[in-house]
Amino acid sequence: MKDREEASHPLYRRLAGKLRDSIADGDFAVGTLLPTEQELCDAYSTSRFTIREALRLLMEEGLVTRRRGRGTEVVSLTPRKGNRQSLSSFSQLFSYAQETKLEIDRSMIVVPDEELSLKLGRAHGRQWLLLEGVRRTLDGEMISVSQIFIHDDFAGIATELPMLKGAIHPFIEERFGVGTAQVQQTISMESAGHAIAAQLGIEKGSLTVFLLRRYLAADDQPIMISFNWHDATDFRYTQVIRQD
Questions:
Q1: What is the rounded distance in angstroms from the CA atom of residue 94 to the CA atom of residue 87?
Q2: Residue 49 contacts by C-beta under 8 Å, 6 or more apart in sequence?
Q3: Three-class SS state of 146
Q4: CB 209 within 8 A of CB 229
Q5: Which structural domains are found in the chain, ordered by start?
Q6: CA dihedral over 227, 86, 92, 201, signed as positive or negative
């Protein structure tokens, strides 16, 4: 069963698992370098992109560091624990959805109040398809409590979403021919209300990391808005800023 689940993971995730096991088994000691990207490409008969994504996962877990001109150095034999996110492109956002699972508890058509409508970026009185649920790792660990508001033009997908694997926004794009031009993300801290705290397994009033993502079309009209609450004690966000 475990082998079947692993086989369903993206190739770079499976490759990261093999390298992680090799590090844990002592094949690569702390302070030593992993093979070069090209050597890994040859060893695993895969692309440089796949290798880089696998190494990115290991870096996020605190197993390795990467420096230009030096290579990939092993700095720990065991990965850091905690909820990690490192998103800087549409492809990584899509991969994140592929590597996790959204469990939808309920869906309904709602008309948000004026304050919430302002937050969603759409006139008060408009309808939305609201999805409520939790996002977990493929191993079942809690990542976040999520509320997803989908523009009512696309509400027809409601019955298909429980069977959907992967990200919602590319599914909307394919079904309705509308493209996501940009994703705006806002990160803030919020105190957990009773319902959010109960789902996250924390005390009411505890701090959460709140991620708001707005998926916008080319005309800046919202396609989908997601609210995500994470346990603040178990969250880490990584962003790589490259020199122009």
A1: 9
A2: none
A3: strand
A4: yes
A5: 2-74 (1.10.10.10), 83-237 (3.40.1410.10)
A6: negative
- Residue 106's nearest CA partner among 167, 161, 172, 166 is 161
Letter string b/e over residues 12-47, b meaning 16 or more CB atoms within 10 A of that residue's CB: bbebbeebbeebeeeebeeeeebbebeebbeebeee
Encoded tokens for 39? 């050597």
For residue 145, the surrounding DSSP H or E stretch is: strand 142-151
What CA–CA distance (Å, rounded) separates 85 from 95?
11
CB neighbours of 127 closer than 8 A, spacing ≥ 6? 109, 110, 111, 152, 155
What is the mean pLDDT of each successive set of 10 residues along the chain, which is 244 residues long? 51 90 91 93 90 86 82 85 52 59 93 90 90 87 93 93 82 88 90 94 94 88 93 76 58
DSSP state of 45: T
Instruction: Give the Å distances, CA to CA, from 223 to 150, 163, 167.
Output: 6, 20, 13
Q: What pTM does this model have?
A: 0.64
